[in-house]
Design brief:
single chain, mainly beta, five-stranded antiparallel β-sheet, DUF6636
Protein backbone atom coordinates (compact mmCIF):
# COMPACT_ATOMS: atom_id res chain seq x y z
CA UNK A 1 0.00 0.00 0.00
CA UNK A 2 2.86 2.43 0.69
CA UNK A 3 3.82 2.45 -2.97
CA UNK A 4 0.47 4.05 -3.82
CA UNK A 5 1.51 7.26 -2.06
CA UNK A 6 4.24 9.48 -3.39
CA UNK A 7 5.32 12.41 -1.28
CA UNK A 8 7.01 15.75 -1.67
CA UNK A 9 9.03 17.79 0.78
CA UNK A 10 7.17 20.71 2.29
CA UNK A 11 6.54 23.75 0.12
CA UNK A 12 7.69 27.11 1.45
CA UNK A 13 4.11 28.06 2.33
CA UNK A 14 5.01 30.91 4.58
CA UNK A 15 7.44 32.46 2.10
CA UNK A 16 4.72 33.63 -0.29
CA UNK A 17 3.66 37.25 0.21
CA UNK A 18 -0.06 36.86 -0.37
CA UNK A 19 -2.22 33.82 0.32
CA UNK A 20 -4.14 32.74 -2.75
CA UNK A 21 -6.42 29.89 -1.84
CA UNK A 22 -9.78 28.74 -0.56
CA UNK A 23 -11.52 26.70 2.09
CA UNK A 24 -14.39 24.27 1.78
CA UNK A 25 -17.78 25.41 3.12
CA UNK A 26 -17.27 23.27 6.24
CA UNK A 27 -13.73 24.62 6.72
CA UNK A 28 -12.37 21.06 6.94
CA UNK A 29 -10.31 21.46 3.74
CA UNK A 30 -8.06 24.45 3.05
CA UNK A 31 -5.98 24.92 -0.07
CA UNK A 32 -3.24 27.34 -1.05
CA UNK A 33 -1.97 28.04 -4.56
CA UNK A 34 1.73 28.81 -5.03
CA UNK A 35 2.52 31.15 -7.94
CA UNK A 36 6.26 30.47 -7.84
CA UNK A 37 5.92 26.84 -8.95
CA UNK A 38 2.29 26.76 -10.14
CA UNK A 39 1.24 24.23 -7.53
CA UNK A 40 -1.56 23.71 -5.04
CA UNK A 41 -1.40 22.21 -1.58
CA UNK A 42 -4.48 21.23 0.41
CA UNK A 43 -4.84 20.33 4.07
CA UNK A 44 -7.64 18.21 5.46
CA UNK A 45 -8.11 18.68 9.20
CA UNK A 46 -10.58 15.90 10.04
CA UNK A 47 -10.81 12.53 8.33
CA UNK A 48 -11.98 9.07 9.29
CA UNK A 49 -9.38 7.08 7.36
CA UNK A 50 -6.13 5.77 8.87
CA UNK A 51 -2.88 7.41 7.85
CA UNK A 52 -0.84 5.64 5.17
CA UNK A 53 2.59 4.45 6.30
CA UNK A 54 5.03 7.33 6.85
CA UNK A 55 8.06 7.30 4.51
CA UNK A 56 11.26 6.57 6.42
CA UNK A 57 12.76 9.91 5.36
CA UNK A 58 9.76 11.99 6.51
CA UNK A 59 10.27 13.25 10.06
CA UNK A 60 7.65 16.01 9.78
CA UNK A 61 3.83 16.11 9.75
CA UNK A 62 2.38 13.38 7.58
CA UNK A 63 -0.95 12.36 6.10
CA UNK A 64 -3.03 15.56 6.10
CA UNK A 65 -1.54 17.58 3.21
CA UNK A 66 -1.86 16.80 -0.49
CA UNK A 67 -0.08 18.46 -3.40
CA UNK A 68 -0.19 18.88 -7.15
CA UNK A 69 1.59 21.01 -9.73
CA UNK A 70 0.92 21.73 -13.38
CA UNK A 71 3.20 18.92 -14.60
CA UNK A 72 2.43 16.24 -11.98
CA UNK A 73 1.53 12.81 -13.27
CA UNK A 74 -0.16 12.01 -9.95
CA UNK A 75 -1.24 13.89 -6.84
CA UNK A 76 1.01 13.37 -3.82
CA UNK A 77 0.96 13.29 -0.04
CA UNK A 78 3.16 16.06 1.36
CA UNK A 79 5.65 15.65 4.20
CA UNK A 80 5.20 19.07 5.80
CA UNK A 81 7.04 21.06 8.43
CA UNK A 82 4.96 24.19 7.86
CA UNK A 83 1.28 24.95 7.49
CA UNK A 84 -0.98 26.40 4.83
CA UNK A 85 -3.93 26.80 7.19
CA UNK A 86 -5.13 30.38 6.97
CA UNK A 87 -8.05 32.75 6.49
CA UNK A 88 -9.14 31.86 2.94
CA UNK A 89 -12.42 32.71 1.24
CA UNK A 90 -15.03 29.98 1.02
CA UNK A 91 -15.35 28.04 -2.23
CA UNK A 92 -19.08 27.27 -2.25
CA UNK A 93 -20.41 23.89 -3.38
CA UNK A 94 -20.50 23.73 -7.17
CA UNK A 95 -17.84 26.43 -7.61
CA UNK A 96 -14.38 25.99 -9.14
CA UNK A 97 -11.03 27.54 -8.18
CA UNK A 98 -8.72 27.82 -11.22
CA UNK A 99 -5.11 28.94 -11.52
CA UNK A 100 -3.09 28.08 -14.64
CA UNK A 101 -4.02 24.54 -15.60
CA UNK A 102 -4.95 23.53 -12.04
CA UNK A 103 -8.59 23.48 -11.04
CA UNK A 104 -10.32 22.50 -7.81
CA UNK A 105 -14.03 21.83 -7.53
CA UNK A 106 -15.95 22.09 -4.25
CA UNK A 107 -18.82 19.62 -3.85
CA UNK A 108 -20.82 18.33 -0.91
CA UNK A 109 -18.80 15.12 -1.28
CA UNK A 110 -15.47 16.97 -0.89
CA UNK A 111 -12.84 18.82 -2.91
CA UNK A 112 -11.22 17.48 -6.08
CA UNK A 113 -8.14 19.13 -7.62
CA UNK A 114 -6.76 18.23 -11.05
CA UNK A 115 -4.21 19.53 -13.52
CA UNK A 116 -4.39 19.64 -17.32
CA UNK A 117 -2.95 16.12 -17.52
CA UNK A 118 -5.79 14.68 -15.41
CA UNK A 119 -3.62 14.02 -12.35
CA UNK A 120 -4.82 15.09 -8.93
CA UNK A 121 -6.46 14.20 -5.66
CA UNK A 122 -9.94 14.00 -4.13
CA UNK A 123 -10.42 14.80 -0.45
CA UNK A 124 -13.31 14.16 1.92
CA UNK A 125 -13.68 13.08 5.54
CA UNK A 126 -14.40 9.52 4.41
CA UNK A 127 -11.76 9.14 1.67
CA UNK A 128 -8.58 10.68 0.30
CA UNK A 129 -7.60 9.51 -3.17
CA UNK A 130 -4.56 10.23 -5.35
CA UNK A 131 -4.77 9.80 -9.10
Amino acid sequence: MAAAFNWLPASPALAQDSADGFRSPTGNIQCMFFDDDASIRCNIADKTTPLPPRPQDCELDWGNDFGLDETSRRGVLVCAGDTIVGDYPELAYGETFERGNISCVSERSGVTCTNGQGAGFALSRAQQRLF
